[in-house]
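Backbone geometry:

***
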Amino acid sequence: MYDSWLRLGFDTVRLGLEAQTVVALRLAKLSLGGTAAQVEAQRMVTEKVEAAAEAAMTLASGGTPERVVRDYRRKVQANARRLSRG
């Protein structure tokens, strides 16, 4: 019982740390301005809305908080990889 809560806690902390990396990378990209910054800003807003809707659907269809965190982490990690490449 405590194992699942502990794992959820650790995964949530990791999500927070990974998200901070993406925020830093996005801020760097946005600070350069131009078309790439505009595209990134739009992507960021769109992703947030889509991710919130997916999380709500996951929970509404009987999914677990663990699943929501896992899905968010996968998306955040993909953003970190994409933004790290340039």
